[in-house]
Write a structure and sequence with these properties.
Order of helices and strands: HHHHHHHHHHHH
Structural class: mainly alpha
CATH class of the largest domain: Mainly Alpha
Number of domains: 2
Largest sheet: none
Helix content: 55-70%
Shape: globular
Strand content: under 5%
Number of strands: 0
CATH architecture of the largest domain: Orthogonal Bundle
Distance between the termini: 40 Å
Radius of gyration: 18 Å
Number of helices: 12
CATH superfamily of the largest domain: Hypothetical protein, domain 2
Length: about 210
Amino acid sequence: MSRRENVATLLEKANDYLRQNDPVLRRVIIDTLPYTVYRKRSHFESLVRIIIGQQLSTRAARTIFNRVKFTIGSRSFSTKVLSGVQDESLLNAGLSAAKLSTIRRLISSIESGRLDLRSMRWKEDKQVSKELTQIKGIGPWSAQMYLMFVLKRLDVFPEADTGILNAIRSLYNGNGAAINVKSISDNWRPFRTIACWYLWRYLDTIE
């Protein structure tokens, strides 16, 4: 069996598990296209995209990221290339000063060897989060996005993500009862990442 077949089998297993364990999420899964693995980018490029997306809508983050790529003017999205772009150009592309500073600190950490993104795939979730959040401007949410969408960890739950919380309130508060987010998300283990993906897709349909 090829790696692609292995992934497809695992995702099918995850979908079946979530449908069986959560009747509410089951309706969302039935009405949504199956979970898909995002196209692969370099770990550095992906992390920069995550930083740009902090506290922004998906559409706004995508627009700014594409402007940054256009400003770079190179197919190679690397620390070396980005280091050579002036701050003013990146600010004009839509980056905030705070996010630009975070990206500069990230580049410095990688180039100095203090942070090795390539080794992250072999590390436990907690260690990955610890190393990433040592960089000022990269908080738990950004580390969780990195775990979910770059390292493809299947059981990550971004408990402070506004979109996820809004989706849970919308789906699980039909009778007006208090919501226990932890209890709800525990039903999704060990596939909380995939459950969250469906919740984000659900939000796309109601916003």
